[in-house]
Amino acid sequence: MKKILRFILIIVAFHAGNCLGQDTLCYHQTASPWVSNHYIFYKENKHLTSGTFDKIMHSDDGQQWAGHGLFTERHRKLILQPFKLVRTMYIIKGDSLLLNPDIHDTISIPKTTFVERGENLLQYARNKKGKMSHLRKKTLFVRDEKYIDNHSTK
C-alpha cells in the first residue's frame, strides 16, 4: 500500500504544475504621464502559443478603457487579434465615485503586433503601407509583476 501511495505522490508532484498552472504576464507602458496603460496576457500553460489578453487604461481625468481579445505568440512576437475598447468615465459627486451614464463608447482596435525584447515589449508604428517600421516611433511596455498581485482580475 505504501508503494502505491508513493507512486501516486510522485506522479502528482511531477504533473501538478501542468494541471493547475496558468501563465500570466503583465506589461505597462512607460513614458505616459497622463494615462496608465496595461496589457495582461493569459495562457493556460506556458507551452501554448496562444491565449487571451486584457487591455486596461486609466486617464488622469477619470476615464477608463477596457478591452479583451485573443493573441498568438510567434517568433518573439505577440500578435493581438482585432478587439474593442470600451470607454467609461467616472465623476466625483460629494464623497462618492459615480459612473457617468453619458460617456460610454466603443473603439475598434486593429490587429496589433508587439516584439519581445528581453523583459520588454516594443510596439512599432506602422508605415503608410501598413508594415512595421523600425525607423518610426515605438512604444515601450515593461513587465510589471506587481500589477498582477495588486489588481487580480482572474
- The count of domains is 1
Poorly predicted residue ranges: 16-21
Distance between the termini: 40 Å
User: Radius of gyration in whole Å, from Cα?
Assistant: 20 Å
Average pLDDT, all residues: 77
Helical residue percent? 10-25%
Question: Any idea what the CATH architecture is?
Answer: Beta Barrel
- CATH class, named Mainly Beta
Q: Helix and strand string, N-terminal first?
A: HEEEEEEEEEEH
Kindly name the structural category. Answer: alpha+beta
Number of distinct beta strands: 10
CATH fold-level assignment: Lipocalin
The general outline is extended
The largest sheet is: 8 strands, antiparallel, barrel
How many H/I helices? 2
User: What is the percentage of strand-forming residues?
Assistant: over 45%
Task: Provide the spatial order of strands within the biggest beta sheet.
Answer: 1-2-3-4-5-8-9-10
Would you write up a description of this structure?
With 154 residues, the protein is α+β, with helices and mostly antiparallel strands. It has a single domain (22-150), classed as Lipocalin. Helices cover 16% and strands 55% of the residues. It has two helices and ten strands. The chain has helices spanning 2-20, 145-150; strands at 23-29, 35-43, 50-59, 63-74, 77-80, 83-93, 96-109, 112-117, 120-124, 138-143. The chain has an eight-stranded antiparallel β-barrel. A hairpin with a 5-residue loop joins strand 1 (23-29) and strand 2. The protein starts with a helix and ends with a helix.
